[in-house]
Write a structure and sequence with these properties.
Blueprint lengths: L2 E3 L3 E7 L3 H6 L13 E8 L5 E9 L3 E7 L3 H12 L5 E5 L5 E4 L7 E3 L11 E4 L11 H10 L36 H10 L4 E7 L10 E4 L2 E10 L2 E7 H10 L4 E2 L2 E2 L1 E3 L16
Length: 281
Amino acid sequence: MPTVHLPSRAFVTVDGPEAEHFLQNLITPDLAALAAGEAKPGALLTPQGKILFDFLISRTRDGFRLECRADVADDLAKRLTIYKLRAKVSIAVQEQELVAVSWGDDSSASQSDSRVRDLRFAEPVWRHHEAALAATTDETAWTALRAENGIAESGADFSLSDVFPHDVLYDQNGGVGLKKGCFVGQEVVSRMQHRGTARRRVMIARSGDVLPEPGTEITVNGRPIGTLGSSADGAGIAIVRIDRVKDALDAGHDILAGDARLTLMIPAWARYTLPETTAAD
């Protein structure tokens, strides 16, 4: 069972008798649909509907565990504390725990990563919080798995406060509870959903050339249409304007990241399609 330690990840715990009610009114996923043993994508949004923090959330005996980027864990805990008021919850960063990810055989001490419909390895993916696990620190295989599945994460693939949940497919992978009711930024998310106005989407980028560094602009005829995120083994995460991708494909124009020619594909599990009409200037 390949296992990779992720030192760039950390845990924030939210415990207490009111933990579920407290979080349900703040964050994007529907916690009523969060099963035991499952790690589900989620986010805390700005009031304008953009992702302020992204994470994986799972249940614990006393509440919930939010796995997030280690460099923003303290900020996430502080932001949650602002909303705490008189809620009977405790919020803490669990700095002593080590995050790991594996794919393959089941483990009773793990949570299944619900984001990954595994195309490349055809095996389930698990999240761990045990420092004793034998693991590599080389994240190449994990980055390749994410790229093959179109699973975007902040830092590696997009900047916080820069994307809407729809941009990174949270409306497709359970990261947003579209029917659960109010949460921070919910009005904007609901409006995008009902009007079908999401134009930026995650696509899988492939190239016969070496893919450039994350953050490289993706262009058509010198005009930017998106950004390349992390990549490995010839596949990468692309967040692009799908209307402009449609224009490029219809016109037969090259889609480039630096000098690398790209082929862009919708993740096999995603339900969105390229628009039928062309982009408006």
